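User: Structure please.
Assistant: Input sequence and predicted structure:
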Amino acid sequence: MMMALEAAGLTDVGLVRNHNEDNLFFDTGLGLFIVADGLGGHAAGEVASKIVVDQMAKFIKQTTSSAMATQSGSGNEFNWNEIRLKTAIQMSNKAIADNILTHPERKTMGSTVVACLVDGKRVTMAHVGDSRAYRLDKNSIQQITRDHSWVAEQVANGLLTKEEAKRHPFRNIITQALGNTSELDIEVHDFEITNSETILLCSDGLSGMVSDEQILEVFNEASNLRHAVRSLVSQAIDNGGEDNVSVVLVRHNLA
Protein backbone atom coordinates (compact mmCIF):
# COMPACT_ATOMS: atom_id res chain seq x y z
CA MET A 1 0.00 0.00 0.00
CA MET A 2 1.51 3.32 -1.11
CA MET A 3 1.13 6.48 0.96
CA ALA A 4 1.23 9.95 -0.62
CA LEU A 5 0.21 13.40 0.50
CA GLU A 6 -2.96 14.96 -0.80
CA ALA A 7 -3.74 18.65 -0.35
CA ALA A 8 -6.12 21.41 -1.39
CA GLY A 9 -6.31 25.11 -0.65
CA LEU A 10 -8.46 28.15 -1.34
CA THR A 11 -8.54 31.84 -0.41
CA ASP A 12 -11.36 34.36 -0.83
CA VAL A 13 -11.75 38.07 -0.16
CA GLY A 14 -14.99 37.59 1.79
CA LEU A 15 -17.95 40.00 1.85
CA VAL A 16 -16.58 43.04 3.70
CA ARG A 17 -12.96 43.68 2.67
CA ASN A 18 -12.23 45.26 -0.70
CA HIS A 19 -9.04 43.28 -1.29
CA ASN A 20 -7.47 40.03 -0.15
CA GLU A 21 -4.50 40.29 2.22
CA ASP A 22 -4.19 36.50 2.70
CA ASN A 23 -1.75 34.30 0.83
CA LEU A 24 -1.32 30.55 0.93
CA PHE A 25 1.06 27.91 -0.41
CA PHE A 26 0.88 24.13 -0.60
CA ASP A 27 3.26 21.68 -2.24
CA THR A 28 2.91 17.96 -1.54
CA GLY A 29 6.33 17.29 -3.09
CA LEU A 30 8.03 19.58 -0.60
CA GLY A 31 5.62 18.59 2.16
CA LEU A 32 5.21 22.32 2.83
CA PHE A 33 1.90 24.04 3.65
CA ILE A 34 1.47 27.72 4.59
CA VAL A 35 -1.27 30.22 5.38
CA ALA A 36 -0.27 33.88 5.90
CA ASP A 37 -2.70 36.65 6.84
CA GLY A 38 -1.40 40.11 5.97
CA LEU A 39 -1.91 43.08 8.26
CA GLY A 40 -1.97 46.79 7.57
CA GLY A 41 -4.82 47.34 5.15
CA HIS A 42 -3.78 49.99 2.67
CA ALA A 43 -0.27 49.70 4.13
CA ALA A 44 0.09 46.59 1.94
CA GLY A 45 -0.79 43.63 4.11
CA GLU A 46 -1.02 41.54 0.95
CA VAL A 47 2.61 42.44 0.18
CA ALA A 48 3.70 41.19 3.61
CA SER A 49 1.85 37.88 3.34
CA LYS A 50 3.20 37.32 -0.19
CA ILE A 51 6.74 37.93 1.08
CA VAL A 52 6.14 35.29 3.76
CA VAL A 53 4.97 32.52 1.44
CA ASP A 54 7.61 33.31 -1.19
CA GLN A 55 10.52 33.52 1.24
CA MET A 56 9.51 30.40 3.14
CA ALA A 57 8.97 28.32 0.01
CA LYS A 58 12.31 29.45 -1.40
CA PHE A 59 14.23 28.56 1.76
CA ILE A 60 12.52 25.19 2.24
CA LYS A 61 13.30 24.28 -1.40
CA GLN A 62 16.94 25.22 -0.81
CA THR A 63 17.22 23.00 2.27
CA THR A 64 15.59 19.79 1.07
CA SER A 65 18.86 17.84 0.94
CA SER A 66 19.16 15.48 3.89
CA ALA A 67 22.92 15.91 3.65
CA MET A 68 22.46 19.42 5.05
CA ALA A 69 21.16 17.97 8.32
CA THR A 70 23.87 16.30 10.40
CA GLN A 71 22.00 14.50 13.12
CA SER A 72 23.77 13.31 16.22
CA GLY A 73 22.94 10.90 19.01
CA SER A 74 19.45 9.45 18.91
CA GLY A 75 18.17 12.41 16.91
CA ASN A 76 15.68 13.37 19.60
CA GLU A 77 17.58 16.55 20.42
CA PHE A 78 17.74 17.65 16.78
CA ASN A 79 14.72 18.47 14.65
CA TRP A 80 15.93 19.57 11.23
CA ASN A 81 12.44 20.55 10.05
CA GLU A 82 11.93 22.70 13.14
CA ILE A 83 15.14 24.57 12.35
CA ARG A 84 14.08 24.95 8.70
CA LEU A 85 10.67 26.37 9.61
CA LYS A 86 11.99 28.71 12.29
CA THR A 87 14.75 29.98 10.01
CA ALA A 88 12.31 30.47 7.13
CA ILE A 89 10.00 32.49 9.37
CA GLN A 90 12.87 34.63 10.70
CA MET A 91 14.04 35.28 7.13
CA SER A 92 10.50 36.28 6.16
CA ASN A 93 10.35 38.63 9.13
CA LYS A 94 13.57 40.33 8.03
CA ALA A 95 12.41 40.49 4.40
CA ILE A 96 9.27 42.37 5.47
CA ALA A 97 11.34 44.76 7.59
CA ASP A 98 13.72 45.35 4.66
CA ASN A 99 10.74 46.05 2.37
CA ILE A 100 9.43 48.63 4.84
CA LEU A 101 12.81 50.41 4.81
CA THR A 102 12.51 50.96 1.06
CA HIS A 103 8.76 51.70 1.25
CA PRO A 104 8.18 53.79 4.42
CA GLU A 105 4.49 54.13 3.57
CA ARG A 106 4.22 50.43 4.43
CA LYS A 107 5.57 50.88 7.96
CA THR A 108 2.53 49.28 9.63
CA MET A 109 2.36 46.20 7.39
CA GLY A 110 2.95 42.73 8.79
CA SER A 111 1.68 39.17 8.59
CA THR A 112 0.71 36.17 10.64
CA VAL A 113 1.87 32.73 9.55
CA VAL A 114 1.00 29.13 10.25
CA ALA A 115 3.06 26.54 8.39
CA CYS A 116 3.89 22.88 8.55
CA LEU A 117 6.33 20.41 7.05
CA VAL A 118 5.04 16.86 6.66
CA ASP A 119 7.63 14.08 6.44
CA GLY A 120 5.88 10.71 6.35
CA LYS A 121 3.62 10.68 9.38
CA ARG A 122 5.68 13.28 11.21
CA VAL A 123 4.37 16.84 11.20
CA THR A 124 6.45 19.83 12.29
CA MET A 125 4.43 23.00 12.65
CA ALA A 126 5.30 26.62 13.44
CA HIS A 127 3.19 29.72 13.80
CA VAL A 128 3.17 33.39 14.74
CA GLY A 129 -0.08 35.29 15.24
CA ASP A 130 -3.67 34.05 15.19
CA SER A 131 -3.79 31.95 12.03
CA ARG A 132 -4.58 28.44 13.22
CA ALA A 133 -3.93 24.76 12.71
CA TYR A 134 -6.28 21.91 13.57
CA ARG A 135 -6.25 18.10 13.50
CA LEU A 136 -9.45 16.57 12.15
CA ASP A 137 -10.90 13.12 11.89
CA LYS A 138 -14.50 12.03 11.39
CA ASN A 139 -15.29 12.26 15.08
CA SER A 140 -13.22 15.10 16.47
CA ILE A 141 -11.48 18.42 15.88
CA GLN A 142 -8.47 19.58 17.90
CA GLN A 143 -6.90 23.04 17.76
CA ILE A 144 -3.12 22.60 17.70
CA THR A 145 -1.94 26.20 17.76
CA ARG A 146 -2.46 28.78 20.47
CA ASP A 147 -3.57 32.19 19.20
CA HIS A 148 -1.02 34.92 19.83
CA SER A 149 -3.75 37.42 20.66
CA TRP A 150 -4.90 39.59 23.52
CA VAL A 151 -8.13 37.67 24.07
CA ALA A 152 -6.32 34.30 24.02
CA GLU A 153 -4.07 35.56 26.82
CA GLN A 154 -7.11 36.63 28.82
CA VAL A 155 -8.71 33.20 28.34
CA ALA A 156 -5.47 31.49 29.41
CA ASN A 157 -5.39 33.66 32.55
CA GLY A 158 -9.03 32.88 33.36
CA LEU A 159 -10.19 36.45 32.79
CA LEU A 160 -12.40 35.67 29.79
CA THR A 161 -14.32 32.59 28.71
CA LYS A 162 -13.89 31.27 25.17
CA GLU A 163 -17.42 32.47 24.35
CA GLU A 164 -16.68 35.95 25.70
CA ALA A 165 -13.45 36.04 23.69
CA LYS A 166 -15.34 35.34 20.45
CA ARG A 167 -17.46 38.48 20.96
CA HIS A 168 -14.90 40.75 22.61
CA PRO A 169 -14.20 44.07 20.82
CA PHE A 170 -10.44 43.38 21.15
CA ARG A 171 -10.64 39.91 19.59
CA ASN A 172 -8.66 41.01 16.51
CA ILE A 173 -5.71 42.40 18.46
CA ILE A 174 -2.74 40.08 18.03
CA THR A 175 0.28 40.15 20.32
CA GLN A 176 2.91 39.41 17.70
CA ALA A 177 3.28 39.29 13.93
CA LEU A 178 6.01 39.14 11.33
CA GLY A 179 7.40 42.50 10.22
CA ASN A 180 6.89 44.61 13.32
CA THR A 181 9.56 43.17 15.61
CA SER A 182 13.01 41.59 15.51
CA GLU A 183 12.14 39.40 18.51
CA LEU A 184 9.72 36.67 17.45
CA ASP A 185 8.47 33.97 19.81
CA ILE A 186 7.86 31.27 17.20
CA GLU A 187 5.71 28.48 18.60
CA VAL A 188 6.53 24.98 17.32
CA HIS A 189 4.65 21.68 17.54
CA ASP A 190 5.94 18.28 16.47
CA PHE A 191 3.70 15.21 16.30
CA GLU A 192 2.65 12.21 14.25
CA ILE A 193 -0.65 11.94 12.40
CA THR A 194 -2.58 8.79 11.68
CA ASN A 195 -3.91 7.78 8.27
CA SER A 196 -7.40 8.89 9.31
CA GLU A 197 -6.39 12.44 10.27
CA THR A 198 -6.40 15.63 8.21
CA ILE A 199 -4.45 18.81 8.99
CA LEU A 200 -6.30 22.11 8.56
CA LEU A 201 -4.47 25.44 8.31
CA CYS A 202 -6.58 28.62 8.19
CA SER A 203 -6.66 32.36 8.64
CA ASP A 204 -8.96 33.86 11.25
CA GLY A 205 -11.42 34.56 8.45
CA LEU A 206 -12.46 30.94 8.93
CA SER A 207 -11.94 30.39 12.66
CA GLY A 208 -13.53 33.74 13.53
CA MET A 209 -16.66 33.04 11.49
CA VAL A 210 -17.16 29.26 11.80
CA SER A 211 -17.18 27.35 15.08
CA ASP A 212 -14.99 24.29 15.55
CA GLU A 213 -18.08 22.09 15.62
CA GLN A 214 -19.35 23.57 12.37
CA ILE A 215 -15.91 23.17 10.74
CA LEU A 216 -16.01 19.46 11.58
CA GLU A 217 -19.59 19.11 10.30
CA VAL A 218 -18.81 20.82 6.98
CA PHE A 219 -15.61 18.80 6.58
CA ASN A 220 -17.41 15.51 7.14
CA GLU A 221 -20.08 16.35 4.57
CA ALA A 222 -17.51 16.95 1.82
CA SER A 223 -16.71 14.21 -0.68
CA ASN A 224 -13.03 15.15 -1.10
CA LEU A 225 -10.48 17.77 0.00
CA ARG A 226 -11.24 20.18 -2.85
CA HIS A 227 -14.92 20.03 -2.02
CA ALA A 228 -14.07 20.50 1.66
CA VAL A 229 -12.02 23.70 1.19
CA ARG A 230 -14.73 25.19 -1.04
CA SER A 231 -17.42 24.30 1.48
CA LEU A 232 -15.45 25.72 4.44
CA VAL A 233 -14.79 29.00 2.64
CA SER A 234 -18.46 29.18 1.60
CA GLN A 235 -19.57 28.57 5.18
CA ALA A 236 -17.41 31.44 6.44
CA ILE A 237 -18.98 33.69 3.80
CA ASP A 238 -22.50 32.45 4.60
CA ASN A 239 -21.83 33.27 8.27
CA GLY A 240 -20.99 36.87 7.41
CA GLY A 241 -17.66 36.81 5.55
CA GLU A 242 -16.30 39.64 7.67
CA ASP A 243 -12.66 38.93 6.76
CA ASN A 244 -10.54 37.35 4.06
CA VAL A 245 -10.72 33.58 4.48
CA SER A 246 -8.04 31.03 3.62
CA VAL A 247 -8.03 27.27 4.09
CA VAL A 248 -5.45 24.56 3.39
CA LEU A 249 -6.18 20.87 4.02
CA VAL A 250 -3.59 18.07 3.88
CA ARG A 251 -3.76 14.34 4.59
CA HIS A 252 -2.23 11.04 3.57
CA ASN A 253 -3.81 9.40 0.56
CA LEU A 254 -3.57 5.61 0.69
CA ALA A 255 -3.50 3.84 -2.66
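The radius of gyration is 18 Å.
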